[in-house]
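If you are new to this repository, start here. Below is one unmodified record pulled from the training split, so you can see the exact layout before writing a loader.
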Amino acid sequence: MIARLCRFEPPGQPGAPRAAAPARVGLVLPEADRVLDLAAAGAASLTELLERPDLLAWLEGLTPRGDLPAYGLAAVRWLAPVERQEVWAAGVTYLRSKAARMAESTFSASAYDRVYDAPRPELFFKALAEKVVGPGQAVGVRRDSRWTVPEPELALVLNAAGQVVGYTLGNDMSARDIEGENLLYLPQAKIYERSCALGPWILVGPDEATVRGWTLTLRIRRAGADVFAGRTEVGRLKRGFAELAAWLCRAQKFPHGAVLLTGTGIVPPDDFTLQAGDEVEIALADLVRLVNPVTKV
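And here is the target side for that same chain:
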């Protein structure tokens, strides 16, 4: 079984203006076109659920219940599946990413070449939970960047013990010109307003071997037409999931858990940059699809 955990806002009253409602934790049932509200089952938070050692069995037991409030998938507002988790990212974990980083770099191409084969991975902070963009919300392009691209990535969801307990989709927006100018500019290229999107839900249940058999896809639309499409297999990721999680948790504590983006294997051509008004769609197999418009920040 693969369970889908999410955060969402339920629909308001018919005809009433929509106001922000308290976030709910839900179990998505795509075959029934419904999301179950888990508050009635005692789920106070997503973070709390991800700490349960019996999480998958508990979720399986909820599926046949008919007493939980449920909403149509199109009726709710999806939120990013994070609460107080920090979001981190790994870089240069795909051969394609290494080639792109080396090509964009003015002075530091050898650093990307060395880190790809080094025992220690590249890890960097990406976002606090409150700065993560959810499904349908705009991702940002810096106004001082001339070359910005989305980076579609598998995201590992970790509990407080550093264990991988689920997977979601992430978009690590990146100003390639700023990063390429100088490695010391990496935080400015990676960490800015609307630079990280996650969602719409967390997949619980599959093991690493299963996930490595899945395909990641990226599609970018401009004025309703495709301007770029790419794909890669998660199996091309050089490092193991537990390996990346262990490096992240060295000399670190994450009392609320963490989300770790695992790097990208899809890189648009060097003459392509995102524009305000574009739409970015990322998909993982046929299980998760994350769509965000693009704006200037």
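Two things worth knowing about this chain: The chain has a mean pLDDT of 93. The longest helix spans residues 95-104.
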